[in-house]
Amino acid sequence: MSTNNRDDSVVIENHGRKFSVVFDDSHGLTPSQTAIRKMSVINPEMPHLLHEAKDATHVEKSMTIWQAFKTYPKAVIFSMVFSTAIST
Question: What is the distance of C-alpha 5 from the center of its chain?
Fold first, then answer.
């Protein structure tokens, strides 16, 4: 990974191909439109996958604590056990 001349973008090289990723304060790192077009040549479903990932991230970030407990009970239990084990 190397930085580009712009402060808010990063160039990622994968299998000899370079993709620019732009940092957006509200969404974190997001691929530029050019990068999405390049990636869709490799994987035609890439724009659809990126859209699904953004939607899933939004849903998880907008969950209440109770919804997170109900959705991910094993993760909550694991986290509590692991935290307790570390603190003792």
Answer: 23
Tokens standing for residue 4: 């580009």
Let me know: does 8 contact 23? Beta carbons within 8 Å.
yes
Task: With 0.85 as the threshold, say if the pTM is over it.
Answer: no
45-87: pLDDT as tens digits: 877 887 888 888 888 889 899 998 999 999 999 999 999 988 7
CB 47 within 8 A of CB 40: yes
- Strand duo 2-3 + 9-14: pairing: antiparallel
In Å, what is the CA distance from 67 to each residue of 1, 9, 25, 34? 36, 34, 26, 37
**Residue 13, pLDDT score:** 65
Residue with the two structure tokens 């935290």: 83
Per domain, the residue ranges of the chain are 2-63
Alpha carbon distance 54, 1 (integer Å): 22
